[in-house]
Write a structure and sequence with these properties.
six-stranded mixed sheet, alpha/beta, 16 helices
């Protein structure tokens, strides 16, 4: 069991990331942490894994943990054996094999005599059979590093598995192996992920937000349904508050008008009855005080309702307002944009693909390029765009305009301000006020317009690109997305999905996210090997 009580965390000199979090995770269950970027999911996961300490609160964990981090920079100096946490056992086994009889070696090995053979078998299972246990992690790709740690789960068979965005760098085959591992394990699993297929294997989702943490007793589909119900209830609350605000303002107006009429009528009677001037002034002052008090009471009520309304509106999703209204491509449907015939590429180590590739890309196509890590998916994109030329075969290209959105959003000039960057898309002289309105619509407040693009997170960079595309007068004929959902939280994945699914031009996507591919209407696949 995992029990977190009153957990708080804040960076030195900064605000609290989260405050007084309470979570109970039952043994043998599968749970996920979800929420927007920046809410502290990975930090909370590290606290559970024992990688960092909370500022306040207590952590009670029953069982041993195996932790798979999201970023492997701190592990690059380690060997594969050290990452698998078997290096000490292997050392002890070697000493015993060499004739050492020190009891410490037997205690360390703990009768795990087949540890080396078993480790090689598991690495083979994850497609890493060619790597030695003494090899440094820095020699491996991102996907291979992830697979090493996932292999460590099977080798160590821990009580608790802690995973931070485990599918980010995994190819489709690796993802399927991970899904199978999660389904079959008897260990307690807690994961941070935006992979909806993985989240659908969970029993419970914990949503971390600025308001705290909420529990949803089901998988991602159940969570999404509940969020829709909550959003509908939120809309009803907003409409109710809007009606209450309108009614309060009408009540204020009617009350003040009635008071003014009564005061005017009373003043007339007093003048006719010959009331002394000093008494008239006193009565007038009293009337003004009463009016002021009445206004204050109504103003306080209206202010309270307005404040509640602002809070409710701030909780609304902003997906619809961030939708990019692409114009239709000028190219007629079916026009051949790129034709690649028997192409291959050589980086100096031989052919990239076992067989030469053929591809015909037509206007209106929605194609996904698939393949294992290192199969040359990004290289193929560069060939199709004319960034590099094939070592074999030929490629012919028609005239068309395209936009290539890679994993790092490198199209964005990191030294430019947000406002200056989106202005590069302003090809029809949109007014400055309209450009700034669009920036606000894509959740960039006035305070961020002069911010350097290099300071943006992955999700913010995505929104900035979508904002730029919405400013442009002409939609690109071809949009290329290279692993677009990597490093995006669920909200930004949904923003991207809603923006791109109605695009009528040509779409070329590299992705292993099957749910995303289905939602954007991919209808063709090209598999590289």
């Amino acid at each position: 069991m995992i029990l977190l009580q009153n957990i708080s965390f804040g960076f030195p000199g900064g605000n609290l990331l989260f405050n007084h979090i309470n979570i109970t995770i039952q043994s043998h269950s599968r749970s996920a942490l979800v929420g927007s970027n920046g809410t502290g999911k990975s930090t909370l996961l590290k606290i559970i894994a024992g990688e960092i300490q909370s500022s306040e609160g207590t952590v009670n964990i029953d069982g041993d943990i195996f932790y798979v981090p999201q970023i492997f920079g701190n592990c690059n100096h380690l060997t594969i054996a050290e990452c698998l946490k078997i290096d000490q056992k292997l050392h002890a086994l070697q000493k015993i094999t060499d004739g050492e009889v020190d009891e410490i070696y037997f205690e360390t090995l703990n009768d795990d005599w087949d540890i080396e053979e078993r480790s090689h078998q598991v690495l083979e299972y994850w497609g890493l059979g060619n790597f030695k246990l003494t090899q440094k992690l820095e020699d491996l790709s991102g996907g291979q590093k992830t697979k090493v740690f996932l292999a460590g789960i099977q080798i160590n068979d821990p009580d608790i598995i802690v995973l931070d965005e485990p599918t980010n760098h995994l190819d489709l085959g690796g993802r399927k192996l991970l899904y199978d591992l999660i389904e079959k394990t008897d260990s307690t699993v807690i994961v941070v992920s935006h992979d909806r297929a993985l989240l659908n294997l969970m029993d419970t989702l914990f949503e971390l937000s600025n308001q705290g943490i909420a529990s949803y007793g089901g998988n991602y589909d159940f969570y999404a349904e509940q969020k829709e119900i909550e959003d509908e209830a939120l809309q009803n609350d907003i409409h109710s508050k809007e009606r209450a605000l309108k009614k309060a303002k009408e009540k204020e107006r009617e009350t003040l008008e009635r008071k003014q009429k009564l005061d005017a009528r009373g003043k007339g009677k007093q003048e006719k009855s010959g009331v002394a001037r000093i008494m008239m002034n006193t009565l007038r002052n009293n009337a003004e005080k009463n009016s002021s008090k009445l206004k204050s009471v109504h103003a306080e009520k209206i202010s309270g309702i307005s404040g509640d309304l602002r809070d409710l509106r701030s909780s609304l999703k902003n997906f619809d307002q961030m939708k990019v209204n692409f114009n239709d491509s000028n190219l007629h449907s079916g026009k051949i944009l790129v034709a690649a015939e028997d192409i291959n590429f050589d980086y100096g180590k031989g052919k990239l693909w076992k067989e030469n590739s053929n591809l015909e890309l037509r206007s209106g196509d929605r194609i996904c390029i698939k393949g294992s890590n290192g199969s040359g998916k990004t290289t193929l994109i560069r060939l199709l765009l004319g960034k590099i030329e094939p070592s074999e075969g030929k490629i012919s290209r028609a005239e068309f305009n395209s936009i290539y959105i890679d994993q790092e959003y490198s199209l964005i000039d990191n030294n430019a301000t947000l406002y200056d960057f989106v202005q590069t898309f302003n090809d029809h002289a949109m007014q400055e006020s309209d450009v700034k309105t669009l920036l606000s619509r894509f959740l960039f407040s006035k305070e961020t317009w002069d911010k350097k693009c290099g300071m943006l997170s992955g999700g913010e960079r995505l929104r900035l690109l979508l904002c730029g595309l919405s400013i442009s007068n002409q939609a690109p004929d071809l949009i290329i997305l290279d692993e677009p959902t990597n490093n995006l939280d669920l909200q930004n994945v949904e923003i991207l999905t809603n923006s791109i699914k109605d695009y009528q031009g040509t779409l070329l996507v590299i992705s292993h996210d099957e749910v995303f591919l289905e939602e954007i209407g991919i209808d063709q696949e090209l598999i590289l090997n």
